[in-house]
Amino acid sequence: MATIAKERAAVAAPPRRRRPEVSWSAWLWIAPALILVLVFFIYPLINTIILSFQNQDSTAFVGLKNYQRIFTDSNMIEVLKNNLLWLVLGTLLTVGLGLLVAVLVDRVKIERAVKSALFIPMAISFVAAGVIWRFVFDYNSSFGLLNAFVGLFNQPPQAWLINSPGNNIALIAVYVWMWTGFSMVILSAALKGIPDDIIEAAKIDGANRWMMFWRITIPMIAPTLGVVTITMVINILKIFDVVYVMTGGNFHTDVIGMEFYNQLFNFGNFGVASALAVILTLAILPVMYINVRRIRAQGR
Question: How many C-beta neighbours within 10 Å does residue 14 have?
Fold first, then answer.
């Protein structure tokens, strides 16, 4: 009887999966990709970390002095504060306005026209957008669209890109102008995925639009909302182009990406530049990890 029970258990048990054997041909196919990753990612990353512990011309080991300078020097602290301002305002405005527009124009007659108009700036590069908005913020009212508008109310022209902290907000506005359309399109697609029967059931239960927004719309699109938010955070942490074109990091508008460029190419300080790159990488890695986990969770 015991033998029969064992045989039945063996038959009922699912077959063990054998691990696929990786042949040399498979390694041959992925070798070019591995080489590229090693040469253009792993090696530069390790080299940058090593340089961050060395002096300006990489001739002596200085330990954590470069990192200490970043977190104690007043100019560097201002750079970190500016990045934090970008991170908070840029993320809130791009995601918030994108969600607002997506909800307001959802299933209305002008939906396509509004979405097309807001998405057009995505076709423009950051450099081109910076040049365009420099004319908008120009001090001369003959060129500066914003100062020409202010002049209609008999107000003196303003130095939008010089006066701080308003100049940082002006730069953030350019980023918001470009990326709100992206957030709107992605979130609008998520709104289209909400089943109609859930919306109809909520209306029958007496839910008003405000209740439907917070108790149905937001929970249903929460995964997409998280992905869009994380994407904006990653983009803003790496922001460089707009600042470089419009102010060059002057007038208290410097950010990490801009300061890294200045330290490396203008001042030749490889140690501080590498330390800034490492800090930026460490700031981005957790956000990317969260994003990857969200994508994997959605794929299950």
Answer: 5
pTM exceeds 0.90, yes or no: no
Under DSSP, the state recorded for 173 is H
User: Is 5 among the domain residues?
Assistant: no
Structural domain range at position 124:
60-299
Helix (H, G, I), strand (E, B) or coil at 57: coil
pLDDT at 200: 84
**Comparing 172-176, 206-210, 234-238, which segment has the lowest mean pLDDT?**
206-210
Look at residue 275 in the predicted model and tell me its pLDDT: 94
Q: How far is CA 150 from CA 138, 155, 158, 159, in A?
A: 12, 6, 9, 12
Residue 188 lies in a domain: yes
Report the domain count for the chain: 1
Residue 221 has pLDDT above 70, yes or no: yes
* Best CA proximity match to 172, nearest among 231, 279, 284, 92: 92
Sign of CA dihedral 260, 261, 263, 269: positive
* Inter-residue contact 190 to 275 (CB < 8 Å): no
Residue 18 lies in a domain: no
pLDDT at 10 over 60: no
Task: Note the pLDDT of residue 232.
Answer: 92
Between CA 269 and CA 265 the distance in angstroms is 8
**Does residue 152 belong to any structural domain of this protein?**
yes
Distance CA 156, CA 140 (A): 11
| CATH assignment at residue 127 | 1.10.3720.10
Find the length of the chain: 300
Amino acid at the residue 117: A
